[in-house]
Amino acid sequence: MNHDTIEIRPVRRDDEAAVLEAWHAAFARLDPQARRTSAAWRRMWLGAPHGLHAQAAFAADGTCLAHFGGLPMRMRLADGERPAYLVVDSFARLEARQGLARDGLLARCCRAFIAASMTKEGGEWAHGFPVARAWELGRRLLSYEFDDEVRLWTGPLESFERLARASGLEARPASIDEGIDRLDLEVHAGLGRIVRSRAHLVWRLPDDGVACEVRDASGTLRGFAAARESMLLGEPHLCLLDWIVAKHDDEAAAALLAHLAVFGRRSAATRVALLASHLDPHGARWARLGLVLVALENTHACFVAGRPDEARALARQVHLTLLDTDLA
Amino acid sequence: MDQLASLSELDPRALREAWDRAFAPRRRDEREWRHAFGDGGAARLEGVGATRDGVVQACFGSLSLRGRVAGRAARLGQVVDSFVSPARRAGLSGARLLVECGVEHFRRHGGADSTAVHYGWPVGAALRVGERHLGYLPLRREVVLYAEVGAGGGSPPAEVQALAGFDARHDRLWARLAAERPSCVDHDAAFLAWRVGDHPSRSYECLGVSNGAGELAGMLVLGSGESLHPSSLAVVDWLVPEGDDDVARILIEAAKARARASGVALLLAIVPTRSRAFATLQLAGLRPHDSGRVLCARSFEPRLFERDLRAQLWTTLLDSDLV
Asked: For A287, which residue in chain B has the nearest alpha carbon?
């Protein structure tokens, strides 16, 4: 491969076909079922409210050889907001892989990403959930910092139904509006969070899932939840993507879980799963419902350009849900 | 000028004096020192110290323990007794000296044919120093599992016996468990006799369940959990084969009864998060909580990838110096 003719540059809208072809070439070996449609690519990369942030290596004939990108979000911390990126779709096609060479194409794409997207405001935080091999590569080549292994709360679908019986409220399909960010601010006061604006949720919530809400008599939003069916741990799970409910609001929690359970019963899922976070105010609730923690082989990895200590400290401050990942 | 030497080459009295200064007000008496150096078989203390004018300035060591790595017989080193003398702690020179000792320790005592994997739970700056300079790989944030045991007495289930001494039954139980734990310290009768039976300053209680043939079906070791929670009893070792859920349930019930009887508020345990025991203990009513401790390892076994180490390394509190 002649590296002199390889160009590393920001991914553009019209790179869709080349990047998708490379994505399938890179991931089909690992998972023959891996498919990404044009619509899904456009939604993921072109639909992001904060723009397209990805770098790729292209051969002279336009073939995409490697790709490193981050889905741009805003992160709210006690001392203000800063940009955050969910690192996804980082790959090099087989013939372009160079093992642990520091000047490999993936590493060069990563450095280009950092230069273009992570040095504007200062302290931009990037994180992701690589599988074991990708983590090892990221640690050695891309300055990934270890936060923790990824853990899920899991249990039978009946776990959600158990609490659901206790509610006098009724959840309904969510009318996603800016009230969600206000609710999130109230519920998760003092915790770091990926900001849930209306635009963010419209972008991130999947079309094939369910989103529901509970409001009080005056119409004020009291709880919000979203879920979808997804393969995790080798079987279909009803995955709780997002959960914004006051810690002690058992009534709202029960109504939301009842709504999700109905959706779950119509799916192939027999189990539920949600991302475990050491900051989750509802940790005791999930344990009471009989869910247990299960560790995945994925690692929660993160980095801040030039500030390794800060990356991990930030990871410890942010309460994430599956909506903030690419796991479900 | 500091000079580096293996612990076995140091003047024992100088080492003990330095240890006393570093860990004051803690002191080790003669029996504790004998135990700290290991029994020579199941455990032996290895390390490197830095001396200046005959005074030990810093030390980095591991307790090298007989076990298995990737399913093969090997030794694992629990990093312990690492310190810089109070007079050298200010500024960066102390950290630098500790790193020099660590690097030399791993050069002398780290290897697939010597001590293949060194592990520990470094706190604060030691974690960062270890990652940057000593090749530590962070493997997992440990999750402490706990249950509030409530008040009152309650006797343990009738099937549970208090075990006194360690014998061939423990070895046969361990042989079953070792097949499930490819990378771990051997918790066989010899190890338990040294670590639990002969400990000079800590007391433990072993509870077991036998099967119909009189063989040990499973056992646990209980000890004080005060280093993790002020009013707790800890399951410091968990020796129950995977799938023996009835044995697990009975032993946890017995442990809760012991905790109630001793007047503590909590029963707690730490087992690997990717083990079946982690789920078993949760289903028995123990809830997870972030322990704040990160298990790290430095591997010298070339056949063991980081992902395997993360998935395989089986530790309990008994593999630490917390209990």
From this structure: B287
First vs last Cα of chain A: how many Å apart?
36
Contacts of A292 in chain B (CB under 8 A): 279, 282-283
User: What pLDDT, in 10s, does the model give residues A247-285?
Assistant: 999 999 999 999 999 999 999 999 999 999 999 999 999
**Number of separate domains in chain A:** 2
- Chain centroid to CA B176: 20
CA distance A246 to chain B (A): 20
Among B137, B145, B290, the residue to mutate for chain A (most A Cβ within 10 A)? B290
Contacts of B40 by beta carbon, 8 Å cutoff, 6+ apart? none
Residue A123's CATH number? 3.40.630.30
Predicted TM-score of the model (pTM): 0.92
To the nearest whole Å, the CA of B30 is away from the closest chain A CA by 40
Over range A84-110, report the average pLDDT: 86
Give the dihedral sign, CA A227/A135/B295/B314: positive
For A276, which residue in chain B has the nearest alpha carbon? B288
Contact B273 A309 (CB under 8 A): no
The values of phi and psi at residue A61, to 5°, are -85, 10
Q: What are phi and psi of A229, to 5 degrees?
A: -85, 135
Q: Is A133 on the interface with B (CB under 8 A)?
A: yes
Q: Say if residues A164 and A258 touch (Cβ distance below 8 Å).
A: yes
Low-confidence ranges of chain B (pLDDT < 70): 152-153
Residue A293, chain B, CB below 8 Å: the answer is: yes
For A212-254, write each residue's pLDDT tens digit: 999 998 999 999 999 999 999 999 999 999 999 999 999 999 9
Task: State the ipTM, two decimals.
Answer: 0.90
Residue A164 scores a pLDDT above 80: no
A144/A159 same-domain check: no
Q: Are both A63 and A77 inside the same structural domain?
A: yes
Same domain, A161 and A124: no
The structural domains of chain B, ordered by start, are: 3-135 (3.40.630.30), 143-292 (3.40.630.30)
Vertex A74 angle, CA A68 and A79, to 5°: 125
Residues A186 and A227 in one domain: yes
State which residues form the domain around A313: 3-150+300-324
Residues A75 and A35 in one domain: yes
pLDDT for res A261: 94
A151/B287 CB distance under 8 A? no
pLDDT in tens, B64-110: 999 999 999 999 999 998 999 999 888 778 889 999 999 999 999 99
A71 and A185 in a single domain? The answer is no
Q: Within this chain, do residues A30 and A62 fall inside the same structural domain, yes or no? A: yes
**DSSP-assigned letter for residue B115:** B
